[in-house]
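Reopening this ticket.

The earlier resolution said the output was attached, but the attachment link was broken on my side. Pasting everything inline this time so it's all in one place.
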Amino acid sequence: MAKYDNNFTDQLRERLSIVDVVSRRVPLVKKGQNYWGCCPFHNEKTPSFSVSEEKGFYHCFGCGKHGDIISFTMESEHVDFKTAITELADMAGLKLPEYKPKSAEQIEAEETYITITAAAAKLYSEKLFTPDGAHALEYIRGRGFSDEMIKKYGIGYAPKNNLISNKFVNTKQDKLIATGLVRRGEYGLYDFFRDKLMFPIFNARGQIVAFSGRSLDGSEPKYINTTDTEMFHKRQTLFGFNFARENIHRANRAIIVEGQIDAIQMQCNGFGETVAPLGTALTEDHIAILCKANRNIIFCFDGDGAGQKAAARACGIILPFLRDNSDVRFAFVTGGKDPDEILRKGGKKDMEKIINSSIPLVDFLWQITNKNYLINTPSGKVQAEKFLKSQIDKITDKLLRAEYEREYNNRKFNEWHKWKKQKETVHIEVPEIDNIIRNTLIYIVNKYPEIAERYGDFISKFNLDLDANIKPEFEFDLKSAEKYIISLKIQKYIESLEKQKRDLTMRGLSGENNVNDEIRRIDDEINRMREKFELLV
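Inline output:
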């Protein structure tokens, strides 16, 4: 009988949670690692029907029924295979492919593909430990990678010449090109990856389906990946998932970081549940794969503007996947660092502090709203209300969506109402400045009086002797002088905020209540100011 391509049915199983599919017809309760309910295939009063989200199977200990999302849909709704696949594809938001069997040619092409990529990975690994790969080996060891780590993850080196094109000269060109390892040029085939540190990309079954190459000469882009092929799609592949899957189950959570090296360092330093997207923004497919493994997810991104934007985007993507058993959090690595650097310099303990300081999704979404909209104005409140509603409406679990609405209604009443009554003022206490800064300010004020007029309120706090005969340490044009004043103003504002935070923290330690909200507000303002400062320098 004809059947759908195995790749598509596998994609359905990866995209859809069996708990979501079964719970449409059977009320389920989580007990331990599995979910339990009364079997829909025979009459019973005591639940003996078990559903394993991790394994993707159901099993009834009463009647012996056993299967996956496809067999459950067929049997519970009394439909044939094609109808079941159509219904599940609609549920997953996937386009149904043509109904046809996989040909012998397709099967042979896939097997050849895996054979070539595995052989290429072996060649790259061997090349890393030759004189040609010495600079690549020095680089990866300098990043804290032991030879054991290099071997485990199959890290290698693609030389400047056409290693793959030459080694597979007897392989049919179309099959070699299909892997993305080579391309056809004016003078024949040439290697896609050259002078790159190579990271094999595995599918969920542990087969090498693609590669990610890192530049070693400082050129951009820093990483290039195999272009999408029949066997590899970046939007549906998470780096390190084949290694992390079992650890995700044990840790009862997944951690998502931004890059391959970050993911490997995290896995090798006690956070085996870590994965990373492949040079693309996080997608719904990535989230679906992770939610099928575990619905507890920590997004760990850089604390800069780009990291904040990536986190905000991830927040919007994951909302439709939330369930009452989800615990989604956001952690940020600040100070211009990444998890790799934190682990190399501070070790596992410092990284644990960052992970443990992660904030729940409900709080992060609230922060995004307050940061992006002027909620102390009527129009700003309306815009913020519309934004929150658009995000909450993405939650498909009706009871959970209602709970989010109640939570935010309470926050809007308690916090936005207070802000409406209060006049927001900023008090900047300017501390002493050193002689270099003092002299630079005197020079700028005397040379550019228009700047002195524009920023007079700020500059006057320093009590400068403007008649002093100053020879500046640095010469400034008008634009650079204004940039200097603005950056100094931001720095002093940050210092005043940090002082306020220290005072509030001491009051909290002394037993005073209701300081945590103000500390969080100050942290948000500090981060916002640091982002502005980073744009200036």
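Reporter confirms the inline version is readable. The two ends are 66 Å apart (CA to CA). The chain has a mean pLDDT of 86.
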